[in-house]
Amino acid sequence: xxxxxxxxxxxxxxxxxxxxxxxxxxxxxxxxxxxxxxxxxxxxxxxxxxxxxxxxxxxxxxxxxxxxxxxxxxxxxxxxxxxxxxxxxxxxxxxxxxxxxxxxxxxxxxxxxxxxxxxxxxxxxxxxxxxxxxxxxxxxxxxx
Length: 144
Fold this sequence. Notes:
Elements: E1 20-26, E2 31-34, E3 41-51, E4 65-71, H1 77-86, E5 104-114, E6 117-126
Antiparallel strand pairs: 1-3, 1-5, 2-3, 3-4, 5-6
């Protein structure tokens, strides 16, 4: 049997980010997984927060990880929203997942309860500099 040599003794608990607008960057190639319930393929973006509102206690959200999942069914609005927000080129033939890497977008983040604990949901993605309904403009890329 293999022994895992990782020290997790100082690991901290997970706290959901407060609801608000965040700037996020895709730093890894999105993964494609099958939904556990339906078997439909999903694209999963792992996004790193690069700017956003301070958290309780004055903590910075920078470096926190958020996930955005969207179905890869034909005509899916949520996949198109991600492509447009990150400026990834696409056509009828699809897109290249690695084109997300290194690109940033604005994420409207909400908090919901999952299995009795608060967790984050990305409700909307927009290109940098565009407003979400009821939200403030995130920093322009030059401001970061």
